[in-house]
Amino acid sequence: MYCDYYSIINRTESISEFVDMLVKEINLRSINFNQDWEFDTIFFGGGTPSLLSPKYFEKILNALSKNLNISGIKEITIEINPNDTSLDNLTHYLDLGINRASIGFQSLQTNLLKFLTRNHKPEDCISTYYDIRNAGYNNVNIDMLFNIPGQTQTIWQNDLKTITDLEPDHISAYSLIVEQNTPLYNQVNKNQIKMPHNKVSIKMFEFCQKFLHSHSFNQYEISNYAKKDKECLHNKHYWNLDPYLAFGPSAHGFDGKIRSWNVSSLDKYIKSLKQNQRPLKGQELLTKIDQYNETIINGLRTTSGISFEKLNATNVDMTNFNMVIEKWKNNLSINNQYILLDPNSYIHADDIAIDMMIN
After folding, report:
1. Could you tell me the end-to-end alpha-carbon distance of the chain, in angstroms, rounded to an integer?
2. How many Cβ atoms are within 10 Å of 196's Cβ, its own excluded?
3. Among 66, 22, 67, which Cα is nearest to 47's?
4. Which of 17, 125, 167, 341 gets the highest tally of CB atoms within 10 A of its CB?
């Protein structure tokens, strides 16, 4: 409905074969992998990995351990949809070393969940959360959405209050954005659905920011809030433009210079690997300007800020940079190492980034 990521339904009979091919991709990639990388995070996501039984995760983790240096792993996250797994499975996941759970609540309103084409109910969110806690997880994230058609400020505030009462370790609060190639995009274009006014979205964001801060959550990225020492280490790698490996249909990886992605089809993915071929769909070399722009975009979104060292390493012409800094000086904090966006100015992040970027 609202997400443009690759997804499929009604293919549970393919799980065993998929896992076999995933392991095969890991094995194939490792043959030519000559980087001296040490991994400290693993993220099982991009769909509903919680549909897999523990034996499949054990198989995948064994393949990773055999082929890559994961001895220093600190965080292994699994994304979970409410009501898609059991307490028994959750306990086994934890035994395998999966120590962080991320639950896709999205909303606690039945009508809004239906609009988002989610199959779970509000009570499923709560019961799954307690199952995760009872299984022994001490690092739990809850995903929420605002700016949903039909969602009022009062509804959003009440949902956040309910969420904080659960005392999760991390909350991700994303604004619903109309992405191309989604049913929502087509419905909005045809005036079948009207998105909330931008002022409504801003008020929801600002309330979330202040409310979660008052409950001891640190906003370390525009959409992400964490209790002390509970930031998502994996996502911080993305925002820092660190290299990472990715496996599976439509998976995107980055080696520091080249971004690559797999085919967005389970059938094509399986077919390629059965032929001992990497299921690569495409790749792109990031130019110096690309690296510069991505440093701007990601840096502005985080409390770490934009690194002058990374900007200077791109060797691009920054003639207009000082003019942009002057224009937005009241929204920025600048020292010898970083440019930081004032938390009260996060709503201007996109405008500032556009000004700073090079076309």
Report:
1. 32
2. 19
3. 22
4. 125
Q: What is the pTM of this model?
A: 0.93
Tokens of 27: 């094995």
Instruction: Name residues whose C-beta falls within 8 Å of residue 244's C-beta, 6 or more positions apart in sequence.
Output: 237, 238, 253, 254
Joined together, the tokens standing for residue 58 give 């054990």
d(CA 190, CA 170) in angstroms, rounded, equals 37
Task: Give the helix/strand (H/E) hosting 333.
Answer: strand 332-334
145 φ, ψ to 5°?
-120, 140
Residue 358 is which amino acid?
I
Q: Rounded to whole angstroms, how far apart are CA atoms 277 and 28?
A: 8
Residue 103 corresponds to which amino acid?
A: I
Q: Give CATH 3.20.20.70 domain extents, the chain.
A: 38-239
Residue 106 has which token pair?
């999205």
- Going residue by residue through the chain (359 aa), what tens digit of pLDDT does each one get? 444 444 555 567 789 999 999 999 999 999 988 888 999 999 999 778 988 999 999 999 999 999 999 999 999 999 999 989 999 999 999 999 999 999 999 999 999 999 998 999 999 999 999 999 999 999 999 999 999 999 999 999 999 999 999 999 999 999 998 777 777 778 878 888 888 888 999 999 999 999 999 999 999 999 999 999 999 999 999 999 999 999 999 999 999 999 999 999 999 999 999 999 999 999 999 999 999 999 999 999 999 999 999 999 999 998 888 899 999 999 999 999 999 999 999 999 999 999 999 98
Strand partners of residue 332: 341
Kindly list the distances between the CA atom of residue 118 and the CA atoms of 107, 109, 178, 254, 257, in Å, as whole numbers in the listed order: 10, 11, 17, 31, 37
The listed CATH number (3.40.309.10, 3.20.20.70, 3.40.50.720, 3.40.50.620) that belongs to domain 38-239: 3.20.20.70
Contact predicate 296/288, CB 8 Å: no
The structure tokens listed for 8 are 């499929």
- Cβ of 28: how many Cβ atoms within 10 Å? 18
Two tokens, residue 40: 């400290």
